[in-house]
Amino acid sequence: MKSISIIIPCYNEENNLKSGVLEQVYRFLIKQKYTWEVIICNDESTDNSLKLVKEFVEKHEGFKVLDLPHGGKPSAVWGGIQKAKYPIVLFTDMDQSTPLKEINKLLPYFDKNYDVVIGSRGVSREGNSLVRKIMAKGFLFCRRLVLLPKLIDTQCGFKAIRTDLAKQIFPNLQFFKDKSDKKGWRVSAFDVELLFMAQKWGHKIKEVEVEWKNEDLSTTKGDNATRFQKESKQMIQEIIRVKRNDLQGIYDKK
Fold it and tell me: From CA 231, how far away is CA 77, in angstroms rounded?
């Protein structure tokens, strides 16, 4: 029987929390036969997110909250991984654009000797604007041309990985070597580097199409258009950086 740690990063998620996303997660999990825990990693939210999460955790067994110093999404995920007590970790977004029930599509592949199993949004991206869809296709083309050509969607926020492997890879991500000030909700394309390193080190990756619809109600992470432009730029820079690092032998396993 599986045991899994579910990590939910949290930065200014007040509106999503008020919509009942955690209750949705809880109602699903209590029906499952496997052992689970949910670790909500607050990335120094500036709205009422932490208060709302604490109120929820107090009333629901199996949930815990980590109040972390601000560092961006990769830092929040890493904070949860370090506290995970089960052999598989799944990280998923608070807005539940991919509902947690889709985890049951991923878990069987760990019995088939896969080490990383990732959700894929396919190409429809329901709920995204036309501009975002076009940009996503452009990013996909560039990324597959340079890195991970067999994977369709590296950026879906729904990924499961063996905990011991996650603990090996995360400290080596370039995100944590960048000492610049990480203001706002910095997402970066850390997923690309994570998957590239896993593949480079000989670990099996499986991509599974999952249900996805943009359900993000947050209005306190910054202007959506500005944030999207910033994230798109970061993603292109990340592809270039990962390719350069690989050519320099940085990812060669010691």
Answer: 17
Q: Are 207 and 110 in contact (CB under 8 A)?
A: no
Q: Per-residue confidence at 56, pLDDT binned at 50, 70, 90?
A: very high
What is the rounded average pLDDT for all residues in the chain? 88
Q: Transcribe the chain into DSSP letters.
A: --EEEEEEEESS-HHHHHTTHHHHHHHHHTT-SSEEEEEEEE---SSSHHHHHHHHHHHSTTEEEEE--S--HHHHHHHHHHH--SSEEEEE-TT-SS-GGGHHHHGGGGGGT-SEEEEE-TTT-BT--HHHHHHHHHHHHHHHHHS-TT-S-S--SEEEEEHHHHHHHGGGSGGGG--S---S---TTHHHHHHHHHHHTT--EEEEE---B------SS--HHHHHHHHHHHHHHHHHHHHHHHHTTTTS--
Model pLDDT for residues 135-174, shown as the tens digit of each residue: 666 666 677 766 888 998 888 999 999 999 999 999 999 8
pLDDT digits (tens, 9 = 90+) for 196-232: 999 999 999 999 999 999 899 887 665 555 655 666 6
At 59, give phi and psi (nearest 5°): -105, 0
Q: In residues, how long is the chain? A: 254
